[in-house]
Amino acid sequence: VQPNNYSTFYDDQRQNWSIMFESEKAAMDFSKQVCIAKCNSSPVLDAVLYQDLLLGEGQGVEGGDSLEIAYTGWLFQNNGLGQVFDSNVNKDKLLRLKLGSGKVIKGWEEGMMGMKKGGRRYLIIPPAWAYGTQGVAGRVPPDSTLVFEVEVRRVKLVKESSGSDGQSVSSRDSPAPSPVPGLDGFSAD
C-alpha cells in the first residue's frame, strides 16, 4: 500500500508492479481481497496474516504503547467474510488498549505491531491466536478464524519521555525491544 491510492507488489519472477486505483476505497477493497486470497492459498494458517489498508503517520507502535482503536470483527467462513461478531465503529467509545499487556487476543498484539496513527490494517487471525477451542459463547464458535479491520485513532508512545536536559529521549533506536516490560530505556540516561 502506497500513498495516493497506489499498491505495489512483486510477481513470481520478482517483477515489481504498481496499480493506481480510482479511489481510496477501491485500493482498500483490493488490499482486503489480497489478504483473503493469501489466507485461502496457505495450506495451514499458523500465524497472523495482515495487510495494511492505510499506512498512517508517525512512529510505528511497539509493546507498551497505548492505543485507541476503532475495529470490526468478522468470522472467517466459507473462504471469506462471514457475520460480524463485534464492532465499535458506530459507537461513541474507542477501544483503549496497551499493546503487550495481554488484555486482548494474541493475534491483535502481534498484528498491530508497527501500525501508525491513522493507519488501517486488515488482520486474519487463526484460532490459536484468537479464542482457540473455547470460542466465545453465543458469538464466536470454537476453532474460529477471525478477520478484523482495525484503525488506530490515537497513540500514546510509552517510550518517549523528556530527559533532565529537556531533550526528548526515546529508546526506539535500540536493535531489539526488551522481553521484560519496563526494563528497556535505562541506557537513554
Summarize the structure.
This protein is mainly beta and 189 residues long. The protein has a domain at 45-158: Chitinase A, domain 3. Helix content is 13%, strand content 33%.
Helix content: 10-25%
Tell how many strands the DSSP assignment holds: 10
Oligomeric description of these chains = single chain
- Per CATH, the architecture of the domain at 45-158 is Roll
The best one-word shape is: globular
Structural class: mainly beta
Order of helices and strands: EEHEEEEHEEEE
Low-confidence parts, pLDDT < 50 over ≥5 residues?
Answer: 161-189
CATH fold field value of the domain at 45-158:
Chitinase A, domain 3
- Major pleated sheet: 6 strands, antiparallel
CATH class label of the domain at 45-158: Alpha Beta
Produce the secondary structure layout.
Blueprint: E1 6-10, E2 16-20, H1 24-41, E3 49-54, E4 66-77, E5 80-87, E6 95-98, H2 106-111, E7 120-125, E8 146-156, E9 160-162, E10 168-170
InterPro entries: PPIase_dom_sf, PPIase_FKBP_dom
Pfam family, one: FKBP_C
Region (Disordered): 159-189
